[in-house]
Amino acid sequence: MKDKRLARVVRNMEELNLKQILVTQTESIYYLTGLWVQPGERMLALKVDIDGCCTLYVNRMFALEGLCPGLRLKEFDDVDDPTGLLAAGLRTGRLGIDKFWPSRFTIELMQKRPDLEMVLGSEPVDRARMLKDQEELEAMRRSSRMNDQVVGALPQTLALGDTEAQVGRRYAQQAVDLGARGASFTPLVCFGKGCAEPHHSSDNTPLREGDAVILDLGLDLEHMMSDMTRTVFFGSVTPEQRKVYEVVKAANEAGRAAVRPGIPMSQIDRAARKVIEDAGYGPYFLHRTGHGIGLSVHEPPDCSAACHLIAQPGMVFSIEPGIYLAGKFGVRIEDLVAVTEDGGETLNALDRELRVIEA
Known about the structure:
The chain is α+β, with helices and mostly antiparallel strands and 359 residues long. Helices cover 31% and strands 23% of the residues. It contains 9 helices and 20 strands. Strands 4-3-2-1-5-6 form a 6-stranded mixed sheet. Strands 8-9-12-20 form a 4-stranded mixed sheet, covered by helices on one side. Helix 1 packs across helix 5 and helix 8 packs antiparallel against helix 9.
């Protein structure tokens, strides 16, 4: 077991008056045990008690016996009733359930144990995971450095007629070739008008001269995720494209400069957003300034106007302002930032100067 992390989770349980919780997300179980289990349709649940005792309910096929000292295993086979096994090990009263647990298991458990008061129970682990320890921070630095390397080389491979999907596959293969487990999310590559959609699905749109190109890419290294966006221009850049690019670049810089312990996350969002609003593009910044990242690509904290959490050392999140002009083009520039004891550390070193790629 990862004892220091477990101790933080137990403290959070005490503050939230939760005597028992079920941790079911693969990433959160890995965070506490060092075991990476992707159960598919099978039940997986780590029961954490207020005394720090942990029991993992897992299918025998994953062969985990002896791999995590201090962890109790309750194994079952495909012909067994896993929720029945779990139900027998729970105490009467409140039970915190992971927000990611499939409803079919929750409903079965409710039917078997009507004496339990089911409540949302992700917060003790979410709070702990939100503050990265030194091991996690160093892993995130390595992941971001590798992402810098792959994304930095990718624009020079762009060729007339390339499709968005082809470029995404090229990125994923290059990441694997360098030692990553793969992409941390489906590569988001946008050309031309597709750049005006913040979450455009990469398709067979071909690259044309004069296109803006958004490369929103991340890789999975040692189960730690990276995420970065760069926008380049293929063949040429118009005055309007240049103007928008420089506004977004300034917003990215302002957001990163605002990061420090003690500041509300909403104020970091405000710092980036104000640059875009002052330039007259406020209505075209369509999303929050950023999201937390670590074992998952999206996790607490948000960097948004609605998030009033106070930035603390160990938090890691993106700063990714953008401007999206429907039917024309869009620009986004994204970096990951870690809150330090006295400021913020940008995890990406890839430069943000406007680049025009030769067609």
